[in-house]
Backbone:
């Protein structure tokens, strides 16, 4: 039996502009994910590809509790997370990526991106992302595919020692699948399509921000965020480098050190 595969859109393979990425959330997972994106960009450019253009969104400021698990230092305390991280990445890698010190979806001049990566904590934040992506897709004045076409939504979510990565397609974004010898899967389920009852499982208690690093570690283990970002970075790198993917996500479990890929479904 021929394997199921999903292929990147033609624009990704023929792009003359960098592929645009919106990173929603710059906390534990997002701060680590931004570093993976920078590595992917540098590697793509070395291969003669246009690379990435990243827009980072977060309205939160750095606190003492963010040190250690998130990629912030003492001198960052009190500053906006997205600005701190983008300034650091731009200096280190000589980039011109942009920071937006607001929640994703709340900025009326927010640029549409080819890929949105969500590293957020709540179902409501994911709902806002879903609504924004649908609206951005509907707002396109023509069907010409370019750096403002929203194709994919990669969602990263985790509990204390477990997590999942879901790569989904924005509804109606990809008009024609690429046909090859293997069976081409056009649509990838988003996190809400894969888990329609997601809202039921959200923790209803308002835990509020952690006051110390020790308290923060009681909610999320020290390495869960960086491991999530590493796996998501590898998945995105393979997808962009090979123009195809044979799975659409991953379940991660640090308790038993077992990880399970999420297969494509016809």
Residues:
């Amino acid at each position: 039996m021929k394997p199921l595969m999903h292929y990147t859109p033609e624009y990704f393979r023929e792009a003359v502009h960098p592929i645009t990425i919106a990173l929603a959330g710059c906390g534990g997972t997002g701060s680590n994910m931004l570093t993976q994106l920078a590595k992917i960009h540098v590697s793509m450019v070395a291969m003669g590809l246009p690379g990435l253009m990243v827009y980072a969104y977060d309205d939160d400021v750095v606190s003492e509790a963010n040190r250690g698990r998130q990629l912030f230092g003492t001198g960052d305390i009190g500053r906006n997370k997205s600005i701190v991280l983008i300034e650091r990445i731009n200096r280190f890698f000589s980039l011109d990526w942009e920071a937006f010190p607001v929640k994703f979806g709340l900025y009326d001049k927010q640029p549409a991106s080819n890929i949105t990566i969500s590293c957020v904590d709540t179902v409501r934040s994911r709902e806002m992302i879903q609504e924004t992506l649908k609206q951005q897709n509907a707002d396109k004045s023509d069907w010409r595919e370019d750096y403002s076409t929203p194709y994919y939504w990669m969602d990263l979510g985790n509990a204390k020692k477990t997590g999942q990565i879901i790569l989904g397609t924005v509804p109606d974004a990809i008009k024609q699948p690429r046909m090859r010898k293997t069976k081409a899967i056009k649509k990838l389920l988003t996190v809400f399509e894969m888990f329609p009852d997601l809202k039921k499982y959200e923790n209803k208690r308002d835990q509020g921000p952690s006051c110390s690093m020790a308290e923060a570690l009681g909610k999320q283990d020290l390495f869960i965020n960086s491991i999530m970002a590493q796996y998501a970075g590898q998945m995105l790198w393979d997808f962009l480098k090979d123009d195809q993917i044979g799975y659409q996500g991953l379940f991660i479990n640090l308790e038993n050190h077992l990880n399970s890929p999420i297969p494509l479904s016809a």
